[in-house]
Design a protein that fits this description.
alpha/beta, Aldolase_II/adducin_N, oxidoreductase, 730 residues, SDR_fam, 7-stranded mixed beta sheet, Bifunc_RhaD/ADH, Rossmann fold, Bifunctional rhamnulose-1-phosphate aldolase/short-chain dehydrogenase
Length: 730
Amino acid sequence: MSETSSDYQFVNYRWEPADADGLTPLQELVYRSNILGSDQRITNTGGGNTSAKLTERDPLTGEDVEVLWVKGSGGDLRTAGPENFSSLYQDKLLQLETLYRSAPESGAKTAIEDEMVGLYAHTTFNLNTRAPSIDTPLHAYIPHAHVDHMHPNAVIAVAACADAERLTQEIWGGELVYTPWQRPGFDLGLKLRDICLANPEASGVILGGHGVINWADTSKACYDRSLDIVDKAARYIDQHDRGKQTFGGQKYEALEERERDAVLAEVLPFLRGLVSRDGKMIGTVQYDETILRFVNSRDATRLADLGTSCPDHFLRTKIKPMLVDWDPASVDIPALKRQLEAGIERYREDYRSYYERCRQDNSPALRPASPTVCLIPGVGMIAWGKNKSESRVTAEFYNCAVEVMRGAEAISEYVALPQQEAFDIEYWLLEEAKLLRMPPEQALARDVVVVVGAGDGIGRATALRVAKEGAHVVCADLNLERARQTAEAIMAERGQGIGVAGSGLSTCGPALALAVDITRRDSVEALFRDTCLAYGGIDKVIVTAGVFMAPGQSGMSDEAMFDISYAVNVKGAWIVGTSAAAIWDAQQLRGALVLTTSVNAAVAKRGSLAYDTSKAAANHLVRELAMELSPLVNVNGLAPATVVKGSTMFPRDRVLASLDKYSVPYADSDDDDTLRDKLAGFYAQRTLTQQPITPEDQAEAAYLLVSGQLSKTTGQIISVDGGLHEAFLR
């Protein structure tokens, strides 16, 4: 057995005595799990589980008892902590066999096998609330202290071969035993026990079409065994690698970056609309060398149609992907769109037929029939999910499937699971129960919201507010650094999410920072193009960017004030709205546009003629765009009044000028925040509510306008001004 990192070629050896020594047995299990999960070549996101049978003091009797600590339902090995592990009385788990055997009918896929899952919680040790995994009996019935069940691509490649049993013997000799595919459950746990007893020299089992489970008497030995198994499989595949003839050789060449991005920018919103018939989807794009080698190959059509093998894979990727037979050399985008549309229709029909052919009397209802993985020669893969994390995991899992097919085809012939077996996993009542236990989706969880002006003030507050409701937020601003700060604040709150996949901008998490100058159409179009490359499309656009040119500001004539004010406050908003319209039209999904105007549009006063008239024009722009973009897009306006806090429109010199104008006392030594508070307090006294107006107040109104709660409202201006009677509707 290998002991050092230099002994391995295809996995990373990460067991460090300095880190592991001194850990408690449970901490050592967590440590082992984390370092196994940190290497994607060993297991995929959320995949696999680990366990240890440890001696614990029973809180009821005070006696020592054997407890199975096993990774519970959900969670990911890479990030798991002790709270992610179930703790179960080992003797009670073993006693469940008597109940299982007493059923009139037992075995794989019988009613009693599913009923057993509900009994695992009754064996809980010390009131642990972590729900036990379906895989619990696979660990409980193996008569060894430490067990790892992994989903390594190289091992699944062997397990998915037509002659997997022969290859198991050839690669590992008597170290591993092969057992054909069987859906995980109580019966498989008993079979693994019998294999252990019949093969005392073995240290693991290759699970046909699934993965590997192995064991040892110490945690480190179990870790070493897991790496040995994976590395041997990967070495064997590498020795038989087919090089340029992988997947039958290349049929197409990949597009150059500029052409590829142009195709994606044109196709992604269109494709998003097609796959979102049963609910909006978020995309992840991948075009690295590995995925392009597959989609450009001669065998891609045959292999893609076979479908995936490992249950973890097709629960996300569906039974198979959709591959269009498009020649990228033509760069014929209209033809590609026609093929995508026809391909989606065929896929949906095939999926419905698959459901009807395989369904049982008690099967859950048909799920959305659109593909979650779309493959385009010369371009790459687009994976879809209900949010960015899910689409990224879907992409990761199809990457795994591609590597499985590559390995299997190098050493033998790839064989996917029979469709009935795949269906019985995909529509398993226990999997359905997991879906039903998931918390309700947040209001904007399936939306891509572009906030223009997100660097500070109202824009920053709005970006944070919609992110709180689950939105995927593009923080756009003329000042990219400020936009990044807003995006980073969102990421700090929500995290990157799960899944390791994507190329370029599409590797992003739930927030992304992009630069934009809304006075230039090419800049705005680049913003929306990059948004599509990151997420697949757009849903809501909120424009908070604006400019106020203070009278007498150095170097500015009245004419220059008008030019800049109208360029940003009117023309810029028009450019954003009309540029977004092209994407909304391609998607044919309902959208929303919110423009920030001002109560100044309705209140005449001295000293801000350029600003006030530009905002009056913006008010009418809202109404005109509502007409132009109907019925697909709701367009409304948000009219703030004197939002001083956090606004770049109120630099110190403007605040001082306003305080002087209204004879509000202040001291030259007052800092900027104190001065702003004094001005905000003065403005508040002019309103009916007598309260300062904050960016968060505006953000709440902006969220309301894009939340869907006002879906029948368009062409309207909502004032958030504290009750400024001068701005009352006349």
